[in-house]
Amino acid sequence: xxxxxxxxxxxxxxxxxxxxxxxxxxxxxxxxxxxxxxxxxxxxxxxxxxxxxxxxxxxxxxxxxxxxxxxxxxxxxxxxxxxxxxxxxxxxxxxxxxxxxxxxxxxxxxxxxxxxxxxxxxxxxxxxxxxxxxxxxxxxxxxxxxxxxxxxxxxxxxxxxxxxxxxxxxxxxxxxxxxxxxxxxx
Length: 186
Known about the structure:
Elements: H1 7-16, H2 24-37, E1 47-49, H3 61-68, E2 74-76, E3 101-104, H4 111-121, E4 125-131, H5 138-145, E5 152-155, E6 167-173, E7 182-185
Parallel strand pairs: 1-2, 1-3, 3-4, 5-7
Antiparallel strand pairs: 4-6, 5-6
Helix pairs in contact: 2-3
């Protein structure tokens, strides 16, 4: 289908669609549990939210909550021009190396691409809010989970977005590939 549209048309469509504001309480509950499970997580780490969101009506959810938890070295990016993000780059086309944590809510239609890129570029943690069924699929298992199994998965017990059933925060830790993922239902 992409062959029918130019790269510019696809880029414009990505900027306008697949934008959902993550409710702050969902992120807060997740972070409380993550900080309990990873006790030595430094608040001084360099963090990137590659799809920060935010607009004239909404704050950028992840940066806002991370700041509440005393993380301060946060870079924000979003492809949408009306975003509150500092950077306005297409994450999938621009290098973002040197970050200790890449975290956010990527466009669900591109979540595999976001995960793969973040796993390559991050120094330590890749954390994304994804549909829980991201675990499914033979190709994804062969190409991703055999090499990069998430260490933790924090499943939201109730529906967060009306268009997606269950979502979860998937947490990968660089150079860790456990045999199974620890699941917590929040």
